[in-house]
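Onboarding guide, step 5: your first structure request.
Type a short instruction followed by the sequence, for example:

Predict the 3D structure of this protein.
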Amino acid sequence: MSVTTKKRGDYGEKIARRYLEERAFTILACNYMPSRGIKRGEIDIIAQKGNIIHFIEVKTRFVHSGDIVDPPETQITRSKIQALNRTAQIYLKEKACSGVTYVFDALAITIYPREKKAHVRFLEDIFL
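The system replies with structure tokens like these:
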């Protein structure tokens, strides 16, 4: 069965939200796109834990028996991180969050459909 990139991403983000909520994160926004300011840029999940806002990129891979694939996080490129940073700055400005502590994280999700399981890796503070 073929899984579209959008469906794979949506499924990975659902797993990511559950993962974060189970670890006492509060989800502030999903698939955030600024209303103005930049042509492209989306943040998969914006969450808060304690006094820290987490801008989270979610990368999902489906792995079938015998497949050899790179880990999902290898798809987070320098240009993706730069776009994430620009979009985060707009979010902070829109929400009047000056002086707040924030970090950029990633959730790398590998899904094994045949085994009906997923492996989640939380990569904290992925840049700067």
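Each response can be followed by summary notes, for example: The chain has one domain: 5-123.
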